[in-house]
Design a protein that fits this description.
It contains 24 helices and 14 strands. With about 525 residues, it is α/β, with parallel strands linked by helices. It has four domains: about 130 residues, 3-Layer(aba) Sandwich (Rossmann fold), CATH 3.40.50.2300; about 160 residues, Rossmann fold (3-Layer(aba) Sandwich); about 80 residues, Helicase, Ruva Protein, domain 3; about 130 residues, no CATH class. The protein has a five-stranded parallel sheet, covered by helices on one side. It has a five-stranded parallel sheet with strand order 7-8-11-6-12. The longest helix has 21 residues. The radius of gyration is 26 Å and the shape is globular. About 15% of the residues have low confidence.
Length: about 525
């Protein structure tokens, strides 16, 4: 990384701190400039490989600073912001997170510490600009860091995520940053190819090996050569093909269909799935040895509803993209429309958001996207007046979907569309808690439970020993008259749930995070945000 390629702006609110920071960063070969006032976001250059970093040395509460920070959501995704604050300033981490600040340092700053942090941030933001992955939430930062790390090795990577989250984009990013970037990248959707054809597509076939095989045909593994092959929806692969795939991974050689000669291959394999492969292994639908061979390294991509703060960045990126492609001019999207999009749960994830942005750019008659331009089905479900559903712990954050999780997810989607009083929602939740206690295929009586159901339940309990029914039941709701009559906002429900789980676990944050189905860092921020002890 050539540090001279970057342009770093440092405000002079605190002259002493600014001088120290400029001196340290300049000694590292970085191009640093001191400014007396913060520029407008749209005037900060961030083209090509140049990534701009803005370091604010003070004056956090000044109008010009707040105006600048409020515009961060419209800034390029590869622009970073650092704030230096006094130890006596009362703001907590969640406050700066809400403003879009990437890093916060207390004064007096440690020169070596800030130089290392700035270097890491610039490299991360360079990756964002070069691989096209948009996101500043902690979840996406972790994905980007793993992409950078995994691209330097040749191990297999298994990418988990719901449909539309961008699994292929992550695979492409790993390939583009790797030493194989000048070799082919071959993507294969295992779910889109018929079972009888998949083996031939992957490994090739000899002439006359089956009816219609009129000539020799190389498979995708041979075509990829020394490049990368990406198997999307690998959980849909039939067992007969899984056996041969395992041999390719272990022996680094294959045989074409109908052939007898072994062919050496030196291809890196990446795979992706939206299924719970551990559950599929227990059901006998996926080979255990192949699962562990694929999951040498793994990346979990969170659904868009779990990282709503990325929605403004993504929306502005897509609007600019489609405006260029369609030769249209837009002033952007107003706050009311943006808030509706943030409230919507995006079952189709980033793909759905992208398609919405394209349709609004093409069909909108105005120069700015407003709330009335949003399609009715999204407008209704993203309206702030609707009652948001209760988040079901342990379901949304799983890598895939087991039988119980699928049933619970169906209920979640049904509740999403209901505008009921909180008492009615509570009754629905109370009536479905047994889903967590017994799989849907289990009989009513314990004595009549078949062997398969016992094995499935025992396996689930061994994989998730802390996620038993007693812990889910520890989050209770009080049957007060006010609660039954007054609808609660999502924040009120979330705060109550977090508080009760913390109380039930004796303030054990790790255990509470697992029960709630969120990361420990997310739980920490929520505790700060809601002022919980």
């Amino acid at each position: 990384m050539d540090m001279s390629d970057y342009r770093i702006l440092v405000t002079d609110n605190d002259a002493e701190a600014a001088s120290r920071v400029i001196g340290v960063l300049s000694s590292q070969g970085m191009h640093v400039k001191k400014i007396s006032r913060l520029p407008r976001i749209d005037r900060i250059p961030a083209a090509g490989e140049i990534v701009t970093l803005v370091i604010i040395t003070g004056g956090i509460h000044e109008q010009s600073t707040l105006r600048f920070l409020k515009g961060i959501k419209h800034a390029p995704a590869n622009m970073g912001v650092v704030c230096l604050v006094e130890p006596t300033e009362p703001e907590n981490l969640s406050y700066f997170d809400s403003l879009g600040v990437d890093e916060v340092f207390e004064k007096p700053v440690d020169g070596e510490e800030i130089a290392q942090a700035v270097s890491r941030m610039l490299e991360r933001n360079r990756l964002i600009g070069s691989i096209g992955i948009i996101g500043k939430t902690p979840e996406m930062r972790e994905v980007i860091e793993r992409i950078a790390q995994y691209s330097q090795v040749n191990s297999t990577v298994l990418i988990f995520g719901e449909s539309g989250t961008g699994k292929e984009l992550v695979a492409q990013a790993i390939h583009r940053l790797s030493a194989r970037r000048h070799k082919p990248f071959i993507a294969v959707n295992c779910a889109a190819i018929a079972e009888g054809v998949l083996e031939s597509e992957l490994f090739g076939h000899e002439k006359g090996s089956f009816t219609g095989a009129t000539s020799l045909r190389k498979g995708h593994f041979e075509i990829a050569g020394e490049g990368t092959i990406f198997l999307d929806e690998v959980g849909e692969m039939p067992l007969s093909v899984q056996v041969k795939l395992m041999r390719v991974l272990e022996e680094r050689e294959l045989m074409r269909v109908g052939g007898s000669n072994k062919i050496r291959v030196n291809v890196r394999m990446l795979a992706a799935t939206n299924k719970d492969l551990e559950y599929e292994v227990e059901r006998g639908n996926f080979r255990r040895d192949l699962f562990y061979r694929l999951k040498v390294l793994s990346i979990q991509i969170q659904p868009l509803r779990e990282r709503r703060e990325d929605i403004p960045l993504l929306m502005n990126y897509f609007i600019e993209k489609f405006c260029r492609e369609n030769n249209k001019t837009f002033a952007g999207i107003d706050q009311e429309a943006l808030q509706i999009l943030k409230n919507y749960d995006w079952p189709g994830n980033v793909r759905e958001l992208r398609n919405l942005a394209e349709s609004m750019v093409v069909l909108s008659l105005g120069s700015r996207i407003r709330a009335r331009d949003i399609p009715d089905q999204i407008l209704r479900r993203g309206s702030p007046e609707r009652l948001l559903p209760v988040h079901f712990p342990g379901v949304e954050r799983r890598e895939g979907r087991g039988a119980d999780a699928i049933e619970f997810q169906m209920l979640y989607r049904a509740l999403l569309n209901l505008q009921k009083e909180f008492g009615e929602i509570k009754q629905l939740l109370t009536g479905t808690r047994e889903i967590f206690r017994r799989p849907s295929y289990a009989p009513d009586s314990e004595a009549g439970e078949d062997t398969f159901a016992k094995r499935e339940r025992a396996s689930a309990e061994s994989r998730h020993p802390e996620a038993d029914s007693s812990e889910y039941s520890s989050v209770q709701f009080e049957d007060t008259e006010d609660t039954l009559k007054k609808p609660q906002s999502m924040k009120e429900v979330e705060r109550s749930a977090i508080a009760r789980v913390l109380a039930g676990t004796g303030s054990n944050r790790r255990k509470a995070a697992k029960i709630l189905g969120i990361g420990e860092r997310t739980l920490y921020r929520k505790i700060k945000e809601y002022n919980l002890k």
